[in-house]
Backbone:
């Protein structure tokens, strides 16, 4: 009975998606129901393996155990890759400053971007969660993307560190705020909104029509 319910449940479990705001790329939605069902079913299968009547169903139970274990491990790295890609996409593709300062890593991210979007396109074509996550080579693909994303993250942090060493007050602000300042360096009105985080006694700048500082 339990195996029939398992097949029925996962036969109709499909991914839900959100849309990346900048690129409209489909992104996996973190469904609590999906995660809870996955965890519960893995526990149930493990308990079933201890049954004295398991011999007749052993192959079937082991098959489902392997499928759901793969789904679990693939989803874990998939969500991590998706989070990192979403964070870095606007930096390495949307920021001309970063593309100029980190050309090699920007090119690396360009290839990551193509590979990640292809994975998401393929996922949309296979909506079933178990079928999509058990595709041959998917886990290895995600691991490869994750490793390349780590290189981009490392290069970005090293670049930001050089800016903080040159101007220590940048240590007072987050990396996202610092990136905002650097990418808008020639637009003082946009940079001005970060001033209160850098200088305690300054909250804004008054600009003339030519954008020169007045006071």
Residues:
């Amino acid at each position: 009975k339990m195996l029939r319910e398992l097949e029925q449940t996962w036969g109709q479990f499909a991914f839900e998606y959100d849309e990346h705001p900048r690129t409209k790329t489909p992104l996996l939605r973190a469904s609590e129901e999906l995660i809870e069902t996955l965890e519960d079913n893995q526990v149930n299968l493990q308990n079933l393996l201890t049954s004295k009547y398991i011999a007749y169903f052993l192959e079937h139970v082991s098959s489902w155990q392997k499928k759901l274990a793969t789904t679990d491990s693939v989803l874990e790295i998939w969500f991590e890759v998706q989070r990192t890609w979403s964070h870095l996409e606007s930096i390495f593709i949307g920021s001309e400053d970063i593309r100029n300062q980190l050309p090699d890593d920007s090119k690396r991210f360009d290839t990551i971007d193509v590979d990640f979007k292809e994975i998401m396109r393929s996922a949309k074509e296979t909506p079933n969660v178990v079928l999509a996550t058990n595709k041959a080579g998917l886990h290895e693909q995600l691991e490869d993307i994750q490793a390349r994303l780590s290189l981009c993250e490392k290069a970005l942090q090293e670049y930001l560190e050089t800016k903080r060493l040159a101007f220590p007050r940048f240590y007072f602000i987050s990396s996202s705020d610092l990136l905002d300042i650097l990418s808008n360096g020639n637009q003082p009105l946009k940079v001005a909104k970060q001033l209160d985080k850098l200088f305690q006694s300054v909250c804004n700048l008054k600009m003339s029509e030519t954008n020169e500082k007045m006071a």
Notes: DSSP finds ten helices and two strands in the chain. The first strand starts at residue 17 and ends at 19. Strands lie at 17-19, 26-28. The first helix runs from residue 2 to 12.
